[in-house]
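Please annotate the following for my students:
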Amino acid sequence: MLIRLSTPMGLALQVDDLKRQCEVHLDDTSREALLERHIRAATRIVEDHIGRFLLPISLELRLPRWCHPIILPAAPIRSVTEVVYLDDAHAEQTVDVANWTFDPSSTGGGVFFDDFSLPTLSSRPSPVRVRFMAGYDDQMQSGAGDDPQLLADPLDEQMVALLAANWFIHRESITELDLKSAPDSFWMIAAKRRIYR
């Protein structure tokens, strides 16, 4: 189970860019709160669908048992901060960083254990936990783009724009015949960007 430990403060798509997509005048500030909500919701849907995080975020992967390796189902991985487990007394223990390594890949990466005798686990659910940072750079923050691996793909931003604009334009009551959850172009891009694990 993948748990979000933080909420990104930035936006994967700037409000003015969504205004252009929706043909809203840039000086019209009356709808900015609504447009921002659409951007945040669309970003979450895109991230959940393609398995990539569009902004830096802190995550925790919880597992029912030890695995070798532990595959992290997110991309891109910025860093692995710690590997912990609940011991047979249900207390959280930290695995020393000398006992594991992280091997990144384009689809996430894996945590490998180096000559480490895996301890007995708690009987409680999901006793093995890996905490890590994932996500592309927030383009509005200084230092964005320093690492080419953390540069956002323009196709991801376009998916957010298509989905958020569709919701904004079709926010009035419509019949089921007119209802489209997302434009076809969204699904075309999503098929290209999705990580299949």
